[in-house]
Amino acid sequence: MRLNSLSFKSSSRTTKKRVGRGIGSGFGKTSGRGHKGQHSRSGGYHKVGFEGGQMPLVRRLPKRGFKSRLVKPHVLTTGFLNKLHNAEINIEFLHANNIVNKKVKSVKIILNGKLEKPISISSKILFTKGAKKMIQDSGGNFFE
Question: The pTM is what?
C-alpha cells in the first residue's frame, strides 16, 4: 500500500447541495429556505440571544457578583505534623504560627508520611480515616 494509491470511500463524503437548480433537484425556486420570513431573505439572521427587539434575557437579569458557598478546607499532612513543636494542635495555634492564613476557617489532615510523636488534635479540625488511625496509633488523641 502506498500513500498515492489511497482513496476515500465513496460514501464518506457527501456531495455539495446545489441549490436553485430547478424543481427536479428538490432545492429549486426557494432553495430550501421555505416561503417568506426573516430566514428566507439574504442577511436574514441575527446574533445569538436576539429576541426580536424584546429586551434580551441576558440584559434583563441583574448583574451581581458571585460568591461560592463551597468552602474547601486547608490541607495538612501527617508528615507535616512532625515539624510542629506543640503537642496540642488547634486552628488558633495554626493561625498564630502562620501555618495557615488567618482567613482559613477549616483545616483537614490527610494521611501522607509517618507520624513519629503523639499529638492532640482539636475536634474542630477535620481528618481522613487513615490520618485518624495513624494519630491514634502514635498515641495521640482528640480534644474539644
Answer: 0.52
